[in-house]
Each structure stands twice: as structure tokens, then as C-alpha cells.
Design goal:
Elements: H1 2-8, E1 15-20, H2 26-36, E2 45-52, E3 55-62, E4 67-74, H3 83-99, H4 116-127, E5 131-142, E6 147-161, E7 164-178, E8 182-201, E9 204-223, E10 233-251, E11 254-273, E12 276-295
Parallel strand pairs: 1-2
Antiparallel strand pairs: 2-3, 3-4, 5-6, 5-12, 6-7, 7-8, 8-9, 9-10, 10-11, 11-12
Helix pairs in contact: 2-3
Length: 296
């Protein structure tokens, strides 16, 4: 629901697609291309997709540079699981190649210029970061335990289509707690993957998504009186579905981020003493993370 809400708030560049001789859904190609170009100039972008024998041709009439660009590919490239997505990306790459001309120094001769707002939007489309890599420190609470863990890890965010992307992270966390019979320490090695949507508001990046977190957890019990009780080490898989919200502040190629996460561990690990629960790494978890990284 979070992904759909954020994506619905973004306006798309109007793309006009005409398909000739290809087994393609023109409406689907147009929709995918508009998602990818949602921060592009607000001007119509006519495109034609033509199939003839073994040749697949993409033609784009760019109103900003007043040029028609043609890209020839093989028809066999369309025989894939997602031919409309392949065609849409080929269309987008051709349009961005045309817009890259706007980044060059102005010619000495007078030419007809596109509206300033449209030109600025095209340049922003080319300069928009597609990958974010960074590191973050994390504090995670399992209220049912109760148990608190701290740690850190690496995170990568890759933008795929329009505002949509994937976020993956991996890291280690550790914590300990006192019980009535001794001390229990917990170590977790885990990873997570999320489908996310983000919107850029100047230097601020806001978004969120849903995914799954999983890993390996270990409990080590050290009794206060080893002569009476025996400490053991337990290990099990830990994980479950999660929701996250993410906010970032861009400072050039560097960004600072704050992330909050809530999830439910359906795979859990618990420690017992004489049949009574001492600690539980499972159920609800709440997380706050601070990080820094680079994007390009």
C-alpha cells in the first residue's frame, strides 16, 4: 500500500506510443516508459515501435532538441518474459540520449530553445541518482523478550522504474540481558530485502516499502552459579515480514539517512530455565537506524 500511494503521487511524462508489426501492448509500453520518465519534462514524447522481419526499430521524436532518433535492434530481443519492459527501456534510453545534448555548452549560432522548465526537468532526469550505497548503525528492540540489540551493516538501494526500486542490507547485531539465573547474550547475523518507492523533494528523499528480514540467531547462557545450573548455546533461524519508512538528506553525492522499521518474527528463538521462558528473540520488533552513503 505504501508503494502504491507514493507512486500515485508522482506525475509522468506524457509518452505517445504507436506499434507497427510488433506483438506488443502499446498501452503497457507507454505506462512503463512514463513511470521511468516521471521526473522528465512535461512535454509530449511521440515514439514509434516498428517490427519488420528480424529488425526491431525504436523511433523517438524529441520536441526539446527538435530531432528524430532511431535505434535498430533485433526482433529476437523482444522474445522474452517481459517484451513490453524491454521496449519501454529502449525508448527511455533513446530519449535520455537525446536529452544529454542539453548538457553540452550552448552553440554560438542562434537556435530555437525549449522552455526553460522543460529543459531543466530533462537535465534533472539525466542527473538523477540510480544507486545508493552506504553503511548504517542500528538499534533493534524485541518488546516480547524484552531484548535490545545494537549493530551495523551495509545497505544498497537501486532504482528500477520511476520511483520504484529495491533495497537490500546485511549486517550483524548483538545484545545481552540479565535474568534471574544469569546472563544471556544474543548474536544475530542477518539480511533483508525490500521493494520500496521514493520521492525526491529537493535535497530530501522520502519513501518506504515492504519486505522480509531473515538471519541466524545465537543465544549463549552463562549461569550465576555454574554448580547449580548449566549454561547452553542455542542457534536457530530468525526472520519475518517487515515494513520500513526511510528519509534521506542529500549533500552532493553524499546522503544521510534515517530509517524506522517494524516487523514480526515468525521464525524465533527463545531461552528457557526449568521450563519457564527467560528471553525471546521473536514476535514484534522495532528498529531505528542512522546511516551515511554515496549515490550516483
Amino acid at each position: 500500500m505504501t508503494v502504491l500511494l507514493v507512486a500515485g503521487l508522482l506525475l509522468a511524462t506524457p509518452v505517445e506510443v504507436v506499434v507497427t508489426g510488433c506483438s506488443l501492448d502499446a498501452a503497457k509500453v507507454r505506462k512503463l516508459a512514463e513511470l521511468e520518465l516521471h521526473r522528465g519534462p512535461d512535454v509530449p514524447l511521440p515514439a514509434r515501435l516498428v517490427c519488420a522481419a528480424e529488425r526491431f526499430e525504436v523511433q523517438v521524436d524529441d520536441p526539446l532538441t527538435n530531432k528524430t532518433l532511431v535505434r535498430a535492434l533485433k526482433t529476437s530481443d523482444l522474445i522474452a518474459a517481459a517484451p513490453e519492459r524491454f521496449a519501454a527501456l529502449a525508448l527511455v534510453e533513446l530519449a535520455e540520449a537525446s536529452w544529454s545534448e542539453l548538457l553540452l555548452p550552448a552553440p554560438s549560432v542562434a537556435v530555437a530553445h525549449a522552455p526553460e522548465a522543460a529543459t531543466r526537468a530533462a537535465v534533472e532526469q539525466l542527473n538523477r541518482p540510480r544507486v545508493r550505497l552506504g553503511a548504517r548503525g542500528t538499534a533493534r528492540l524485541f518488546p516480547q523478550g524484552p531484548l535490545a540489540l545494537v549493530g551495523g551493516g551495509l545497505v544498497a538501494h537501486v532504482r528500477l522504474v520511476g520511483p520504484l526500486g529495491v533495497l537490500a542490507e546485511a549486517g550483524v547485531e548483538t545484545g545481552s540481558m540479565r535474568t534471574s539465573v544469569g546472563r544471556i547474550s544474543v548474536d544475530v547475523l542477518g539480511a533483508a530485502g525490500f521493494v520500496v518507492a521514493h520521492v525526491e523533494l529537493g535535497r530530501v528523499l522520502l519513501g518506504g516499502g515492504a519486505g522480509f528480514r531473515a538471519g541466524a540467531a545465537r543465544l549463549v547462557g552463562v549461569p550465576d552459579d555454574p554448580g547449580v545450573r548449566e549454561g547452553r548455546t542455542l542457534a536457530a533461524t530468525l526472520g519475518g515480514p517487515a515494513l520500513l519508512a526511510d528519509a534521506g538528506l542529500g549533500l552532493g553525492p553524499v546522503d544521510l539517512s534515517l530509517q524506522v522499521e517494524a516487523g514480526w518474527a515468525v521464525w524465533r528463538l527463545g531461552g528457557l530455565s526449568d521450563g519457564a521462558a527467560l528471553v525471546s528473540v521473536g514476535g514484534l520488533w522495532l528498529t531505528a537506524s542512522l546511516g551515511a552513503g554515496v549515490r550516483w
